[in-house]
Write a structure and sequence with these properties.
Order of helices and strands: EEHHHHEEEHEEEHE
Helix content: 25-40%
Number of strands: 9
Structural class: alpha+beta
Distance between the termini: 22 Å
Largest sheet: 9 strands, mixed
Length: about 250
């Protein structure tokens, strides 16, 4: 059994401090299904489809901007300058490219996935639950939970993908998180214990808190918060959050 080291961002006011956190981790060979999933992300056909989709979206917006300019701009004067639609189109293309790279992982993500395939292993993070807080679901955002582990770390799980796990009894007394070691491609959760009934159900998190938790990136997150404060609204950081662990 090895120890998985992750970097957690401790938020104290406007400052950020990197802190090491530990999770018990073992490794096993990738299954055929996991290999197929990783290969799918870096296959030529998938990359080609992504490229075509990107070009199509940018081209569609460009055509719309040009059409609007041609229809409403006067034929003479500064307002007739084609730069009035070209510049916004280029600005959108640049912004969309940056966002696209984040969504798809970009070149770095491709390299990481290929390294995972070469390594041929899946990381299995073992979680033993001490306590759990369920968060009220808002509209179709999916279930959300704060999990306090035996290492006294707080894991935040959220998203529509948790609907299936909740029907299976999540959270459990113990479970495993399966992911690729390098790219962090998430393969799922594996139940290893019975259902764990959350000790508390709190109100839904506000938008600013969700952004602080990076709730829209990834399936789970390590948080540096006081667990009991999560039963309040708003949540509070740990009193010693500005002190790095040794």
């Amino acid at each position: 059994m090895s120890t998985f080291k992750a970097t957690r961002i401790v938020r104290s006011g406007s400052k950020k401090t990197a802190v090491d956190v530990a999770m018990r981790t073992s490794h096993e060979p990738l299954t055929a299904k996991q290999k197929a999933e990783l290969r799918g992300y870096v296959s030529r056909s998938v990359r080609l489809v992504r490229a075509v989709l990107f070009v199509a979206i940018v081209a569609l917006l460009t055509v719309c901007l040009r059409s609007i300019h041609s229809s409403f701009a006067p034929k003479q004067g500064l307002a007739s300058n084609p730069l009035l639609w070209i510049v916004p189109a280029l600005a959108f293309a640049a912004w969309f490219y940056i966002r696209w790279q984040r969504w798809t992982g970009g070149g770095r993500g491709t390299v990481d996935i290929r390294n995972d395939l070469a390594r041929g292993e899946v990381a299995i993070h073992h979680v033993q639950v001490l306590d759990a807080i369920e968060i009220e679901e808002v509209e179709d955002e999916g279930p959300s939970y704060f999990i306090l582990t035996s290492e006294k770390e707080i894991l935040y799980f959220n998203g529509q993908w948790l609907d299936r796990e909740k029907r299976r009894g999540f959270p459990w007394q113990s479970f495993n998180i399966l992911e690729a070691p390098v790219s962090k491609t998430f393969f799922g959760l594996k139940k290893t214990g019975e259902h764990f009934r959350p000790s508390y159900t709190r109100k839904a998190l506000d938008w600013d808190t969700l952004k602080k938790f990076h709730a829209f990136k990834g399936r789970y997150h390590l948080l540096d918060l006081d667990f009991e404060s999560l039963k309040c609204n708003p949540v509070q950081p740990k009193p010693s959050a500005n002190l790095a662990k040794s």
